[in-house]
Structure formats: structure tokens, C-alpha cells
Amino acid sequence: MIRKGKAHWTGTGRDGTGDLTTQSGVLDHSPYGFKTRFEDAPGTNPEELIAAAHAGCFTMALAFQLQRAGFTPTSLDTEAAVSLDSVDGGFKISKSALTLTASVPGLDKAKFDELAKEAELNCPVSKLLNAEITLTATLV
């Protein structure tokens, strides 16, 4: 399976602008640039997209872990907070902090923690990231 995304850019790094388009069309010439990345201008940025991808990947991996263990979640809500840090004159995505709140009938905390950790370690986006990954998981 191959998924594609495209970027278009004009101008310099600081003053230029670009847009992102995905194969599915979910992003269709979505604006991005210096101001969407380092300030709060409308549009998206690579770190936000990585955060959404990591949250989505982890949550789906956990849903499969739960299914294999015989549990059906009522809800799984995950936020990923991706850190972009200045390192050696450049930038590095240094961390992705996952925060999960889950409602899973009949599941005890120990099994929940085990399955959540397994999903954190084995979702494809976690495996891709060369960054520290943390998980705070709450079973309600």
C-alpha cells in the first residue's frame, strides 16, 4: 500500500507560501508556510499533520489490540502533542506525547495499560518517528 501527499511552494522560506494536497482529497491545496508553522496563522503545518497521524495510528492500533483481547471500546480519545525543537542550528521533532482517555467496559487497569503500551510501541507511525514517545493513558 502506498499513500501520497503533495507539497507546492513559492518564494523564500520565511516569506513564501505553500499548499498541501493528499491523495484522498482531505487536504486540497491546504495552505502552509512560516506563519502557519511558527506563528498562529490559519493553515496547517507538518508537525500538526504528524500529530494527527500519530494520534490516529495509535488509536486504531489500540482498537485492534482491544478487539484481539475480546474488548470493544465505547470510546478512545487520543491527543498527540508533537514538539519541534531547535537543535544544532536546525530543527528536530524531538517528542510525541500521546494522551489517551478510554472507556472500555469490562477491562481492568493492568490489562488496559498493557494493551495501550503495545499499541504505542507497534503503531506504524510510532515506528517511523525518530523521537521520544510518551503515553499517558486514563481508563474511565
Describe the structure.
There is one protein chain. With 140 residues, this protein is of the alpha+beta class. It has 2 domains: 5-38, no CATH class; 46-139, 2-Layer Sandwich (GMP Synthetase, Chain A, domain 3), CATH 3.30.300. Helices cover 34% and strands 36% of the residues. It is built from 4 helices and 6 strands. The strands form 2 sheets. A 3-stranded antiparallel beta sheet has the order 1-2-3. Strands 4-5-6 form a 3-stranded mixed beta sheet, with helices on one face. Helix 2 packs across helix 3. The N and C termini lie far apart (36 Å). This is Osmotically inducible protein OsmC. Residues 1-24 are annotated as: Disordered. It comes from Caulobacter ginsengisoli. InterPro entries: KH_dom-like_a/b, OsmC/Ohr_fam, OsmC/Ohrsf, OsmC_Ohr_Peroxiredoxin, Peroxiredoxin_OsmC.
Give the SSE map.
Elements: E1 5-10, E2 17-22, E3 30-33, H1 34-38, H2 46-68, E4 75-87, E5 90-103, H3 109-122, H4 124-128, E6 132-139
Parallel strand pairs: 5-6
Antiparallel strand pairs: 1-2, 2-3, 4-5
Fill in the keyword field for this structure.
140 residues; GMP Synthetase, Chain A, domain 3; 2 domains; three-stranded mixed β-sheet; 4 helices; OsmC_Ohr_Peroxiredoxin
Concise synopsis of the structure shown:
The chain has 140 residues and is α+β, with helices and mostly antiparallel strands. It folds into two domains: 5-38, no CATH class; 46-139, K homology (KH) domain (GMP Synthetase, Chain A, domain 3), CATH 3.30.300.20. The chain has helices at residues 34-38, 46-68, 109-122, 124-128, and strands at residues 5-10, 17-22, 30-33, 75-87, 90-103, 132-139.
